[in-house]
Design goal:
With about 400 residues, this protein is of the alpha/beta class. The chain has a single domain, classed as TIM Barrel (Alpha-Beta Barrel). The protein has 10 helices and 12 strands. The protein has helices at about 20-25, 45-65, 70-80, 180-200, 230-245, 260-265, 270, 300-320, 360-370, 395; strands at about 95, 160-165, 205-215, 225-230, 250-255, 275-280, 300, 325-330, 335, 345-355, 375-380, 405-409. Helix 3 packs across helix 9. Residues about 1-20, about 25-40 and about 60-150 have low confidence and may be disordered.
């Protein structure tokens, strides 16, 4: 059973279970009416309630025996997943002056690091080498419906695995990119890539930056979109650094009360570069009357298809290597009509199981959103500070299917 997305008026305003707000809320005092005093031969209140519960359980089991639904079984686990919202700003463009980075101690990223020279990665000034056919993505072609088979065989996936660090270069509260300069980031990325290649030497790892290009805000801003836009100088700087180091750049769009089309228009010159790709963050894509940090947003399959087709148009018109599109998700209702998604030639679609939690919870969410739903490629996002404990590389690659893309924040 596929869970539908609630309308804005139906979405609850109270904290989600097991979120930090839920845990910190004072206990609710509940006054329970008691049954009237009955003769001694009448079963006790506890016995009556136990009997009612037993009847309810038996009835539910009989009804569920004929159908059952993945969404019902895993809904409680998914609703525990949450992410931090960037702090609000007072200007419409994020600049170094507005969001100056603060030096912090970086995370430990090198468990079991292989100190040997890393596997060479392709140069992105031209089209990448034609990949050797390998098993990858969400399964062999024979196990997928015909309209969901990967149609972009010349893309980076599944020959390579992609490892990216997420954040904003001018804000150390929004991820790794604000906590280290680019040289340090490249060193940490390569160390983390070595750790994954030590576990799976058969699949080279390509490193990447994921820069938040439009940043959701809790205030409307001058245009009412609830967005700040990262300055193009910063985005071009990271694109240049990535290209010079055989790395990729993903531009993350948080959309706010804007649209996918309008948000993409602002970064179109960068998307014309061969090593620059796109990510959509539905959590911050708001409906009218909603506010980032208060509501959890969503995008539709049609909006994702628009992004796919726009990227495919660039690939075709400019002769670019295939593009990669990441869509972050930690709740079912963050992608409406997900079953309508389909591959588009020239674009490789990755659904990233987002949100922080312990390894059991993250595995459950990955299984629900990636393994059990037909898509092209799967990814997972890990949090150095919030995941307690952090999944080891061996645990990440033991997921089925092993992620094609791994993001750290």
């Amino acid at each position: 059973m596929r869970l539908g997305a609630p309308s804005p008026t139906e979405r609850r305003e109270d904290p989600r279970p097991f979120s930090s707000e839920w845990l910190q809320a004072p206990p609710q005092v509940i006054t329970r009416p008691r049954l009237p005093v009955l003769p001694a031969w009448v079963p006790s209140e506890q016995a009556v309630r136990a009997g009612l519960v037993l009847l309810l359980v038996l009835g539910t089991a009989l009804v569920g025996a004929g159908g059952g639904g993945r969404g019902d079984r895993r809904l409680a686990a998914r609703d525990q997943m949450s992410e931090q919202l960037p702090a609000a700003g007072a200007i419409d463009t994020v600049t170094p002056e507005a969001m100056a980075p603060t030096a912090v101690v970086g995370p430990t990223v090198a468990r079991g690091v292989n100190q040997a020279a890393p596997t060479p990665t392709p140069t992105f000034a031209a089209s990448p080498p034609t990949p050797t056919p390998v098993q990858g993505g969400i399964g062999a072609a024979a196990t997928l419906p015909p309209d969901l088979v990967n149609t972009t065989t010349e893309g980076l996936l599944p020959r390579y695995r992609i490892l990216t660090f997420y954040g904003h270069p001018h804000n150390d509260n929004m991820g790794l990119l604000g906590q280290h300069d680019p040289v340090q980031l490249l060193q940490l990325l390569r160390q983390q890539a070595d750790a994954y290649e030590a576990v799976d030497p058969t699949r080279p790892v390509i490193i990447a930056f994921e820069v938040i290009a439009s940043v959701a805000q809790s205030e409307p801003q001058y245009d009412g979109t609830y967005l700040l836009h990262t300055d193009l100088d910063t985005l071009n700087e990271y694109a240049d650094i990535a290209a010079a180091n055989n790395a990729l750049l993903f531009l993350d769009l948080q959309i706010g009360l804007s649209t996918v089309a309008a948000d993409m228009d602002g970064i179109m010159p960068l998307l014309q570069r061969p090593n620059v790709h796109l990510a959509l963050d539905p959590e911050f894509a708001m409906a009218e009357g909603e506010t980032p940090s208060v509501h959890i947003g969503s995008v539709t399959a049609e909006q994702i298809a628009y992004a796919q087709e726009t990227l495919a148009g660039l690939v075709s018109q400019l002769g670019l290597p295939p593009k990669i599109l990441i869509v972050h998700q930690f709740r079912e209702d963050m992608i409406e009509n997900k079953s309508d998604l389909a591959p588009v030639p020239g674009v490789q679609l990755v659904i990233d199981a987002d949100g922080f939690g312990d390894p059991v919870l993250k595995t459950d969410v990955y299984n629900y959103l990636v393994r059990d739903e037909f898509i092209e490629f799967g990814g997972i996002k890990l949090f150095y500070d919030q995941d307690k404990p952090l999944m080891a590389e061996e645990e990440v690659l033991a997921l089925e299917p092993a992620p094609d893309l791994i993001i750290y924040q």
